[in-house]
Amino acid sequence: MSQPSNSSFPLTLAQDGERVKLINVHGKLREKLASMSLGMGDVVEIVSNHGHGPILIMKQENRYILGGGMAHKIEVVISQS
């Protein structure tokens, strides 16, 4: 299910192939993401999301696996670019 382009939603709801922009993080996850070179405003592509468990995302040529709990704490919007 594709999300409206102007409303934020948890990364766990993003679909394979969608490009989303990271806009907010709940909890102390921001430092962990920064250590992975992921920051607010970054655009990532969803490579694989089965709706439960880990999510595989890609930023430029780098791929990252995020656990479902971690991904649920990351708010995103659909990227227009």
Q: What does the model show?
A:
The protein is mainly β and 81 residues long. The protein has 2 helices and 6 strands, in the order ββαβββαβ. The protein has helices at 29-35, 68-72; strands spanning 9-10, 19-25, 43-49, 55-59, 62-66, 74-78. Strand 4 and strand 5 (62-66) form a beta hairpin. The longest helix has 7 residues, at 29-35. It is globular, with a radius of gyration of 11 Å.
Which stretches of 5+ consecutive residues score pLDDT under 50? none
CATH architecture: Roll
- Which outline best applies? globular
Q: How many strand units?
A: 6
- Strand order across the largest sheet: 1-6-2-3-4-5
Question: Which structural class fits the helix and strand makeup?
Answer: mainly beta
- Text of the CATH class: Mainly Beta
Number of domains: 1
* Mean pLDDT over the residues: 91
The CATH topology comes to SH3 type barrels
Distance between the termini: 20 Å
Report the helical percentage.
Answer: 10-25%
Q: Give the DSSP E fraction (strand runs of 2 or more residues).
A: 35-45%
The count of helical stretches stands at: 2
Order of helices and strands: EEHEEEHE
Rg from Cα: 11 Å
- How would you name the CATH homologous superfamily? Ferrous iron transport protein A (FeoA)
Largest sheet: 6 strands, antiparallel
